[in-house]
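Write out the 3D structure for:
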Amino acid sequence: MRLDKWLWAARFFKTRSLATDAIEHGRVMLNGARSKPAREIHVDDRLVISKDETRWEITVCGLSEQRGPAVEAQKLYAESEESRLTREQQRENRQLMADPSREIQGRPTKRDRRKLGALGNW
């Protein structure tokens, strides 16, 4: 089975083209090495998948030609315990520390500029 098709069926990527792009840009490692989207994948292969800030280290447990429900897709792979703990820790850190840039939207308003002027920055 093709690597890009398996990533799509296992629900790591929403479309096959997104999976293909990730593979081509080196965000998916098969058995410790970069590969091509058409590379054949087999049971017991090890994958490292990086998507945004998330990283999975998984072992392939099954193959599926079809994209099914999420419950069925989770049966296609087994995530390493270390990877799972790291992802949970990252999720907790994101919840505890809000990114200040998320509050900033676009250019400052007239009110914001007046506040900055009052501080002596303008």
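The longest strand covers residues 54-60.
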